[in-house]
Amino acid sequence: MSTPSSQFKLGPASLTEALFASLRERIINGEIVPGEKVTEQRVAGEYGVARPTAKACLERLTSLGLLRRTAHRSASVPVLDASEIEDLFFSRETFESAATAHLAQARNLTDDVARAQAAMTQAAERADFRDQVQYDIDFHWALVNGVASDRLSRMYEIIAGEIHLTMGQYAAHRRTSPTTVVSEHDAIMTAIRDGDVDGARAALATHLSRARERVLKQVAGGSTPAKSGAGPGDD
Fold first, then answer.
1. Among 172, 165, 188, 212, which Cα is nearest to 27's?
2. In this predicted model, what pLDDT tens digit does every residue of 12-42 receive, in sequence order?
3. DSSP-derived secondary structure letter, 176
4. Nearest alpha carbon to residue 173 among 223, 206, 135, 141
5. What distance in Å separates the CA atoms of residue 232 and residue 235, rounded to the nearest whole number?
6. Which residue, among 104, 98, 100, 14, has the nearest Cα to 56 in the 3D structure?
């Protein structure tokens, strides 16, 4: 459903980047619900931007998997089925395992990883779902970017949008104790700090396996993706 013109305000960043960030957050957090259409006209009206700016943003969101467009149809927010989720987590573990092992081998626990974990710990303590999702995203991106490989980062970006979409739609952090994901991250960080390559891979694999099973359990049970504002007990 469209909202009144210019309801959403953009920050001081570049217009396209600010527009992208705002729409991305609304999609991930379920304010724009699965199946909902997102048109150039709608975006231009809601944000007070030119149609070419709206088009460029929608194309970027589509390329990252946060929107999906079929022939002769408007872009809409997708819902991944079980097979797509399985494939997504397979791809995710492939990239992140390589990055985590590389960091462990070098005993390189980067400042970005530590900062993301500290922020996520605080978000978990105050049970802030939105921030937990964002800082979890930051943590895993920090693992990949810690390798300092432009190619690895570009390849990871191909699936990053769908990762974030799934985290938000299925409210992964609401399906377990707020401290569980934090503890799993701690185990990954400890192995990296200790130079334990096998331990780092195993901790990451356990972390992602548990996340995958939480999502697949909901899919198998016929659960629909969470809408914005759903509470911790909304299974």
1. 165
2. 458 888 999 999 889 887 889 888 999 999 9
3. S
4. 135
5. 8
6. 14
pLDDT tens-digit readout, 143-185: 999 999 999 999 999 999 899 888 877 766 667 787 899 999 9
Is the Cβ–Cβ distance between 145 and 77 less than 8 Å?
no
Q: What is the dihedral of CA 55, 58, 64, 69, to 10 degrees?
A: -100
For residue 18, give both structure tokens: 């600010």
What CA–CA distance (Å, rounded) separates 205 from 210? 9
User: Alpha-carbon torsion 227, 170, 71, 157, what sign?
Assistant: positive
pTM (2 decimals)? Answer: 0.79
Main-chain dihedrals φ then ψ at residue 37, nearest 5 degrees: -80, 140
What count of other Cβ atoms lies within 10 Å of the Cβ of residue 58? 23
